């Protein structure tokens, strides 16, 4: 009999730092450098795995593999150019935000897919382009595990694939510093509250007219690059 069981084999599929990274809460004040204006924790050391770090903490992690976490609509993202050095991100949808290609760390479930969407995340049902299977790194971990039961989804027909060419959501620009968002995000993989853009303001006086129908902002303002 082999030395390693199925559970150990499953854990060895991923680098030891990945699951701890996805559970961390970033953009909080560093407890060691609270008096500094650079005390926001948006860095992570892949070698030490000792929690979020601020820029001043990096002085103690010289020659270590440190990555920077950024923020988009209160959700954590990381640049593809950084994470792909250490992790296979194939099948995870990438986004272009502020001219940089990024991937989301954790899931962002949608109540229902957008109109005309033919492909969704296998774990949380977020709308995706046809060439991707997962919306985030966390969903890829869950969706590729041996005990995960894939949801029963119909194969997209060729004539419907053109509908998936448009993004299904609008993302705000990320920033590496977001003090107003402290304490508003939850990084547990199984449950994640999506950040939904506020609905377009409706003029209720106009809406009372017979033919007055409020129009919603169109989807697809986010540039997505495969």
From TrEMBL:
Residues 164-181 have a biased composition (Low complexity). Residues 148-211 are annotated as: Disordered. This is PLATZ transcription factor family protein. It comes from Sesamum angolense.
């Amino acid at each position: 009999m082999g030395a390693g069981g199925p559970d150990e084999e499953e854990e060895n599929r991923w680098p030891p730092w990945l699951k701890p990274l996805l559970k961390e809460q970033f953009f909080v004040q560093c407890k060691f450098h609270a008096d500094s204006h650079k005390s926001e924790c948006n860095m992570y050391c892949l070698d030490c795995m000792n929690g979020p770090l601020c820029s001043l903490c990096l002085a103690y992690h010289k020659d270590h593999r440190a990555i920077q976490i950024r923020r988009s609509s209160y959700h954590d993202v990381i640049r593809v150019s950084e994470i792909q050095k250490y992790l296979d991100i194939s099948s995870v949808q990438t986004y272009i935000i502020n001219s940089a290609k990024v991937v989301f760390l954790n899931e962002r479930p949608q109540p229902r897919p957008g109109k005309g969407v033919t492909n969704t995340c296998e774990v949380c049902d977020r709308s995706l382009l046809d060439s991707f299977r997962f919306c985030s790194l966390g969903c890829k971990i869950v969706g590729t595990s041996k005990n995960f039961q894939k949801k029963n989804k119909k194969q997209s027909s060729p004539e419907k694939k053109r509908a998936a060419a448009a993004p299904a959501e609008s993302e705000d620009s990320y920033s590496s510093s977001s003090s107003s968002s402290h304490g508003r995000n939850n990084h547990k993989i199984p449950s994640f509250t999506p950040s939904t853009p506020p609905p377009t303001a409706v003029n209720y006086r106009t809406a009372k007219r017979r033919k007055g129908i409020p129009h919603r902002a169109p989807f697809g303002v986010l540039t997505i690059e495969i």
